Amino acid sequence: MKAVVFDANVAKYIRTLLLGKISKKFFYNRFSCIQLKDIPEPELPSENYVKIKTTYAGICGSDLNLIFLHDSPSTSPFASFPFVIGHENLGVIIEKGKAVSEFEIGDRVIVDPVLDCDARELPRCSSCQEEEFSTCLNITEGKLSPGTIMGACSTTGGSWGEYFVAHKSQVIKVPATVKDQEAILVDPLASALHPVMRSFPKDSEKVLVYGAGIIGLLVIWSLRKLGSSADITALAKYDFQADLAKEFGANRVVKSKEGYLDELAKISDAKIFKPMIGDKVLLGGFDKVFDCVGSRKTIRDGMWLTKQRGSYILVGLASLVKDLDLTPIWFKELNVKGAYCYSTENINEYKMSTYQLALSLIQQHGIPYEKLITHYFRLEDYQKAIEVASSKGSEKSIKVVFKFL
């Protein structure tokens, strides 16, 4: 089968980093850690697995972090090389193990990519017993090679390949009323819902959504669809992002240009000060800040923009951050939270997987896929797809997907 494979060793990693300083194309050309290859189809690890033929696959911000080597090397023990990239998925079951009775050949499905104890066919660890699957303690054990999610595990394959395998506990049948283009957005919507559900604002609170890419937009969209009347300010880099943020429910949008801290201080009734050396700091701020970027600047400013004892939620996948001043954490007694993937969420005293919740919201409200999915590519054109996905300003890209049909 054809698949885009990530295969790194120390020499290739260092060479790609050095060449990448000349041109970003060295991160995804034939000298890089990723290649389009013909590889064997993955086999079912047990009778509890199904094989899926990919129809759509999305390019996630975490995929771009991987390709451009922005991830911290500290996560390398929790992946198995080489692996097929991609976890945003939609496909059709073409093979199933004897122990799979819940699904049939030909079912259109999505797969929750988290490789927890159930997927690894192990007794549940303490995290999985609490149904906090994204923090599973056994991500290097069991039936599968190391990997936190599909798309980082050599056993399962990934959605940037023609076929991948999944444990029956991961598989969700897509209702006939949900379009393919809606179903492929379940994953990014779940990524937005997980931090929203864990830090849901009161209607009286002021919220800042820092970043208006796909996750920031879906944080705003999900807050409104879940009934929040909180005052939402979005911080956007580009005009097309700002227009969608307003359309999706932000009360106002501030552009990330010179002087934006002063503008946000006025909105949040914060006081702004200029220290003896360095950038401006604030007293007061927003009740909750969802940082959907995760850069040095957004972390620094996002924490100062959070009011005393407020919540700063890091949604963007930050890794190595040089010279980051952590003063606001203790000075403002902030509640600093992280969000990784998806898990289960409490809904009216019931627990529901984040993936199921995302699918339910799409069934109930629809999702404006025609505004969110901006580009479609064949897998063979993966280099152009990466170029477009990583050039948001010039290409006006939001969600870029591979179409296998």
From TrEMBL:
GO molecular function, one term: oxidoreductase activity
Entry protein name: Alcohol dehydrogenase GroES domain protein
Keyword hit for Heme: no
Alphabetical keyword list: Oxidoreductase
Stretches assigned to the Alcohol dehydrogenase-like C-terminal domain: 215-349
UniProt xrefs under SUPFAM superfamilies: GroES-like, NAD(P)-binding Rossmann-fold domains
The UniProt record lists the keyword Oxidoreductase: yes
Naturally occurring in which organism (per UniProt): Caldicellulosiruptor kronotskyensis (strain DSM 18902 / VKM B-2412 / 2002)
Signal peptide: none
Domain Alcohol dehydrogenase-like N-terminal: 47-175
Name of one Pfam family that matches: ADH_N
InterPro entries named in the record: ADH-like_C, ADH-like_N, GroES-like_sf, NAD(P)-bd_dom_sf, Zn_alcohol_dh
